[in-house]
Amino acid sequence: MKITMLGTGYVGLVSGTCFSEFGFDVCCVDKDKGKITNLEKNIIPIYEPGLENLVKKNKDANRLTFSIDLKNNIADADVIFIAVGTPARRGNGHADLSYIYKAAEEIAKNLNGYTVVVTKSTVPVGTGNEIKNIISKTNPKAKFDVVSNPEFLREGNAIEDFMRPDRVVVGCETEKAREVISKIYKPLYLIETPILFTDLKTAELIKYAGNAFLALKISYINQMADLCEKVGADVHDVSRGIGLDKRIGSKFLHPGPGYGGSCFPKDTQALVKTANHYGSNISLVENVINYNAQRKIDMAEKIISTIGKDYNNKKVSILGLAFKPETDDMRESPCLDIIPKLQEKNIQISAFDPVAMDEAKKLLKNIQFSDSIENCIKGSDALVILTEWNEFRSLSPQRLKKNMRGNILIDLRNALNPDSFRKSGFTLIQVGRPNIFIQ
Fold this sequence. Notes:
Rossmann fold; single chain; elongated; 18 helices; six-stranded parallel sheet; 14% strand
């Protein structure tokens, strides 16, 4: 069976590589010739643990190829996955489906025999039906089915999520399409992965509903963290206490400066737009969006108020720029809102991230980017942790004292062990926890 993946972004590249690992003949197609040339040289455009080795392995086995030849790879395919971008439209929050619909037109022009066309991109309810209309209108003789197969890949853990998922969701309308999709996911049947078959619209909505719920869960624990600070409680114990309830679960109950990334911000916005279009009340998600935006501003104010009123010539070191660990993704990262607010006070910023520096340089200006933790914190008056990379968790008072000028630590990810900083001479400010002051 031949699989063609349209798009070599995060979802397309990971999914195509993992399908080739299942043993299928996969070609990942992209119009960006430079990206395809790099992929053929094993130059991976994204940072994802384990992906580079898996790409090389399956390329060497001749199961995974890369191409700009859209026409022939569509004609030869049994299954075509659409994995192009669906960014939020500038100004209104609706999902931009222009890339999806353009892909549908290209598919229609080049279909050869019965083909299953699968949307892997995150798309609003009704997109699958529109893809059917486009293909049928462009090529009335085409023999095809449209399937919705949303992805649930966490950046930094995407390969594991694909190879051992919690579930696979498939929206389809014919038994023939179901049989084809069942064949490509047979390796997951063998490990008893739940595979949920639904109609097209339900599958499309499941993706948005899941992400919105997780965004709500993150915002909920952040609000509990705020309350903990006011009453003198510890949000980590609160989180553990409620997370042990199997009805709630422990995941996504870690407080921080607000969610970011490529999914939650745009997917919550798109879900609200869909609900508004159909006149359905979705105020919970609307409140989450507004709260999360304000959360990032509040965290900037938290840093500023901790430093004091004399901002001139103050240096703040930022550790972590990506929106989460194990990725170089800067999309909607909290640092993009927090750092400019600090700069408005003429605070000097130095920053370090293990993998996201190149991406950060495209988005942040007038910052001293450092090549190590030591160079970043050298001579700083305050240190802020914005991303909980593992290498930041082991920072000790002794190591910090050797390099820092000041003694203020603002840990917005609660990555540091408070016990290590008692009687250390540092003021440790965390989220939803009692502050540890100089003793």
